[in-house]
Write a structure and sequence with these properties.
Number of domains: 2
Low-confidence stretches: none
Strand order of the largest sheet: 1-2
Largest sheet: 2 strands, antiparallel
Radius of gyration: 19 Å
Strand content: 5-15%
CATH topology of the largest domain: Arc Repressor Mutant, subunit A
Shape: globular
Helix content: 55-70%
Distance between the termini: 35 Å
Number of strands: 2
Order of helices and strands: HHHHHEEHHH
Length: about 150
């Protein structure tokens, strides 16, 4: 089975078009797998991303700092933070150095949620199970190379 069969398209303009379509299709497929993984905790992948960012930072972050670290740069960070606040997964505090800004920190409830999900992280790691470690390393290098070339 290949991308041709998955999207029922017999040919592509060239291999570059095919790889672009394949990455878009694969990203959507992966997003659905992650969505299913997160359903048990009733959070979205963007909410999960923000919780992971806050946990990893070890210090309060502004919504701008969170947005800069997000995987999905198009996310409405402020709106997502508000939803996490309503769920009790984050807390907001006035910034100590600039009273006009608000800092966001992960709450104990948010840490507990991540801990529950971390127990099942092998489910996420198993998604690309068809690749051996060397292939996974190569794929990572190729994807990094593609993005780096376009950033120049």
């Amino acid at each position: 089975m290949g991308i041709e069969k998955d999207i029922q398209q017999r040919s592509f303009r060239n291999e570059y078009q095919k790889v672009t379509v394949n990455i878009i299709f694969s990203a959507s497929w992966l997003t659905e797998k992650i969505k299913t993984f997160l359903e048990s905790e009733d959070i979205t992948s963007q909410q999960y991303n923000i919780l992971r960012i806050l946990k990893g930072s070890k210090e309060p972050l502004s919504t701008l700092q969170i947005r800069e670290r997000m995987l999905d740069k198009m996310s409405d960070t402020s709106r997502i933070v508000e939803r996490l606040l309503k769920k009790g997964l984050v807390e907001k505090k006035v910034c100590a150095t600039d009273k006009r800004l608000v800092d966001v920190i992960i709450s104990k409830k948010g840490l507990a949620l991540l801990e529950r999900l971390d127990k099942n992280n092998t489910q996420l790691d198993d998604i690309p199970h068809a690749l051996n470690p060397e292939e996974a390393t190569l794929l990572n290098k190729l994807l990094d190379k593609m993005r780096e070339e376009q950033s120049k």
